[in-house]
Design a protein that fits this description.
This is Class I SAM-dependent DNA methyltransferase. One of its GO terms (molecular function) is methyltransferase activity. Pfam families: Methyltransf_25. Keywords: Methyltransferase, S-adenosyl-L-methionine, Transferase. The protein has 269 residues and is of the alpha/beta class. The protein has two domains: 70 residues, 2-Layer Sandwich (Pantoate--beta-alanine Ligase, Chain: A,domain 2); 181 residues, Rossmann fold (3-Layer(aba) Sandwich). Helices cover 23% and strands 32% of the residues. The chain has a seven-stranded mixed sheet, with helices on both faces. β7 and β8 form a beta hairpin. α2 packs across α3. The radius of gyration is 18 Å and the shape is globular.
Length: 269
């Protein structure tokens, strides 16, 4: 007998931060180290906002590197976990599509793991960049890492067949089957993911999406918001294969499936 997956607006990983870290381990803290390398390379000051901070492990790494860090996320579960397991930064609730934390200006905003791409519309993207502009000091940096919309121009290898992943957490074996497809009208990469577990719980189907931003489009909107793009490239980075390592220099291409951005605020208004 086939069991139909239940649809839910919840997110198994976001609602269960320990499960998230089990599914996406980063024992070497590559994401945090890459972000710190960018901040040092381009001379950022010590005050950093990690927007879309998730479990807080990258914010905590930046804190240990000597920075004064605020981690912000929309998930109360993630924030609670971050405070308990990755202390050091201040953690606050905020929506990256429009935020005002009421704090003194930051020297840099960090936005990792495609969090920026939850801005699905132009209005939401403008809201994010306007918020960054308001909270940054003149000359402050925006450092971001995300999927690359240009990768899907003529390429279908991530779309042709579902991908499966499995891992075990606290004695329960989890398996996910993920299908991606491009919604060209909305310029979104839509994801359907079905979770199964060997603990007897019924399957759960979850749907989400990322905005597909193209390098030249991103350059244009950043310039419109007063930013100068210092670097925009496909790798190496924390989610590339092979991943970034200390001493790696940015590529001169923006062709592969990840996109890495460093921009400086030049017109503060």
């Amino acid at each position: 007998m086939t069991t139909t997956a239940a649809n839910t607006a919840a997110n198994l990983l976001t609602d269960n931060p320990e499960l998230y870290e089990a599914r996406f381990p980063d024992r070497e803290r590559i994401a945090g180290r890459w972000a710190e390398d960018c901040l040092r390379r381009y001379g950022a000051g010590e005050r950093v906002l990690d927007i879309g901070c998730g479990t807080g492990r990258d914010a905590a790494h930046l804190h240990r590197a000597g920075r004064t860090v605020t981690g912000a996320d929309l998930s109360d579960a993630m924030l609670e976990y971050a405070r308990a397991h990755h202390p050091g930064p201040e953690y606050v609730r905020a929506d990256l599509r429009g935020f005002d934390l009421g704090q003194e200006p930051f020297d840099a905003v960090v936005c990792l793991d495609s969090a920026l791409l939850y801005c699905h519309t132009n209005e939401e993207l403008d809201g994010f960049l306007a918020s960054c502009r308001r909270c940054l000091t003149p000359g402050g940096l925006l450092v971001a890492e995300m999927r690359n919309g240009a990768f899907f121009l003529g390429r279908t290898e991530l779309l042709d067949a579902p991908t499966t992943n499995g891992f075990t957490w606290q004695g329960t074996a989890y398996r996910s089957t993920t299908t991606l497809y491009v919604d060209r009208t909305a310029q979104l990469l839509r994801r359907t993911r079905t979770w199964t577990a060997d603990d007897g719980c019924p399957p759960v189907e979850q749907r989400s999406a990322w905005r597909l931003l193209f390098p030249q489009e991103l350059r244009h909107v950043l310039t419109a918001h007063g930013f100068e793009v210092l670097a925009l490239y496909d790798g190496p980075g924390p989610r590339t294969e092979p991943p970034w390592r200390e001493g790696d220099l940015p590529a001169e291409t923006a062709d592969a499936d990840r996109l890495h951005l460093v921009a400086r605020l030049t017109h503060h208004r």
